[in-house]
């Protein structure tokens, strides 16, 4: 699986993108979660390719914690620009160093994102994997969002999401929760309360994205 | 007869003179396919503001329109505008060269007017 994903990304000579924007624009994306956090920063060099770096942290509160820092390339594989909607397929790949449990070494990352949105609805499927010497950690995220009203670019735009996440380390556990998002120009703030199946505790998670 | 002439003057001649007096720069409205979110708007806003010929840019999400004001004495062809939109990752639907000043056109768009007065700009136009 690991080599299949790496081969896939190399063959496409383009790799999944967390975010690709107009050339010259810089993006940051940070998410802090109970089981999974990441931070990435990058700059688009064309409208379909961005270069950057990502830091991943898995289950930081447990013995099985893992983290990685990778240099990454993001690629917008396909975009459908319609009059009232947009759909995208992104690929991303990265290579660097990581530590899984007590074992440190090289690490590679690969991701796939598929999304569709119009001004009222947004759905996104995101698969993020990090390949350590001692195994793979993957997070699958599904977002479905709705805007209670349509705001203009220079107004604060609220969105309400249902977010579902699964961790490859706990394949039978699903985290689900509501997410509240505020957008203003090139700034996005997100807050969600996630609950893992079979567990009554809520985990509060936060995110910030910028484009400038 | 006199009434008709007066109405004609009021509607057509006076506004035209006012428009010319307001600004001698060019205002262009671009209808964009795929302009549906804040990050899309940021992409287009910054892309157009970075063009040396552009003095002002405004994005309206509801009308999927980017409004730009060109610096006096400069111009941008249909092909350059189309290339700029596509380079930012979007599709161009149409371009209108407006008779209005940038501020007037922006006010109209903010009031969600579906169309600002102007004439279509075509390839090689």
Record keyword descriptors for this entry.
heterodimer, A: 212 residues, mainly beta, twelve-stranded antiparallel beta barrel, 1 helix, B: 125 residues, alpha+beta
List the helices and strands and how they pair.
The complex is a heterodimer of chains A (212) and B (125).
Chain A: H1 2-11, E1 26-32, E2 36-44, E3 49-58, E4 66-81, E5 86-100, E6 103-117, E7 121-132, E8 135-146, E9 157-167, E10 170-184, E11 187-196, E12 202-211
Antiparallel strand pairs in A: 1-2, 1-12, 2-3, 3-4, 4-5, 5-6, 6-7, 7-8, 8-9, 9-10, 10-11, 11-12
Chain B: H1 2-22, E1 27-33, H2 38-49, E2 54-60, E3 65-70, H3 78-87, E4 91-98, H4 102-110, E5 118-120
Antiparallel strand pairs in B: 1-3, 1-4, 2-3, 4-5
Proportion of residues in β-strands of chain B:
15-25%
Task: Enumerate how many helices of chain A there are, as a single number.
Answer: 1
What is the string of helix and strand elements of chain A?
A: HEEEEEEEEEEEE
Helix amount of chain A, in percent? under 10%
**How many helix segments of chain B?**
4
Gyration radius from CA atoms of chain A, angstroms = 17 Å
Mean pLDDT of chain A: 87
Q: Strands of the biggest beta sheet of chain A: in what spatial order?
A: 1-2-3-4-5-6-7-8-9-10-11-12
- How would you name the oligomeric state of the polypeptide chains in this document? heterodimer
**Alpha-carbon distance between the two ends of chain B:** 39 Å
Q: How are the strands ordered across the major sheet of chain B?
A: 2-3-1-4-5
Please report which band the strand proportion of chain A falls in: under 5%, 5-15%, 15-25%, 25-35%, 35-45% or over 45%.
Answer: over 45%
Shape of chain B: globular
Helix/sheet category of chain B = alpha+beta
How would you sum up the major sheet of chain A? 12 strands, antiparallel, barrel
Question: How would you describe the overall organization of this protein?
Answer:
The complex is a heterodimer of chains A (212) and B (125). Chain A has one helix and twelve strands. Chain A is mainly beta. In chain A, strand 10 and strand 11 form a beta hairpin. The longest helix of chain A is centred in the first third of the chain and has 10 residues. Chain A is globular. About 7% of the residues of chain A have low confidence. Chain B is an alpha+beta fold and 125 residues long. In chain B, 42% of the residues lie in helices and 25% in strands. Chain B is built from four helices and five strands, in the order αβαββαβαβ. In chain B, strands 2-3-1-4-5 form a five-stranded antiparallel sheet, with helices on both faces. In chain B, strand 2 and strand 3 form a beta hairpin. The longest helix of chain B has 21 residues. Chain B is globular and about 30 Å long. Chain B starts with a helix and ends in a 5-residue tail after the last strand. About 14% of the residues of chain B have low confidence. The interface between A and B is medium-sized, with 35 and 29 residues.
